[in-house]
Amino acid sequence: MAVKVPVSVGETLTFSKTISEYDVYGFAGITGDFARNHVNEQYMKEHSPYGKRIAHGLLSLCMSSTCSTAFAEKSEVTCVSLGYDRVRFLKPVFIGDTITVSYTCEAVDEEKGRSYSRVEVYNQDRELCTVATHILRYLG
Question: Per the confidence metrics, is the pTM higher than 0.90?
Fold first, then answer.
């Protein structure tokens, strides 16, 4: 059964946030990912080309949920995430970086009740850090 998808191809939402130490430790606590590249400053200074801690790649991707939620709340239609395709972490996000998520609807499938959106996460220098395609299913 076809469902009216409440977004249009080309529609874009953005969200910006400065990634704090609190964000990284909170994400580590929720996920259990306390890898030293996220939580050990000294190790990263001594053993990494970055010289400092990096945020979890999935943390930058998860910020796109702010935009997908805004798409979903545009109408009375309930939706669920079916996941992300073609996820790539192109550049690290560091503590103190301000990232901007650009979330653009690229396709709508009314028959399946889905939208497909391009996710792009940029740092404050407009360097592309994370990309993916997000699939939302609208339940009606």
Answer: yes
Residue 130 and residue 101: Cα distance in Å, rounded?
9
Q: What is the 3-state secondary structure (H, E, C) of the chain?
A: CCCCCCCCCCCEEEEEEECCHHHHHHHHHHHCCCCHHHHCHHHHHHHCCCCCCECCHHHHHHCCHHHHHHHHCCCCCCEEEEEEEEEEECCCCECCCEEEEEEEEEEEECCCCEEEEEEEEECCCCCEEEEEEEEEEECC
Beta bridge partners of 26: none
Give the pLDDT means over successive 10-residue stretches in the chain (140 positions): 83 96 96 96 96 96 90 80 97 98 96 95 98 92
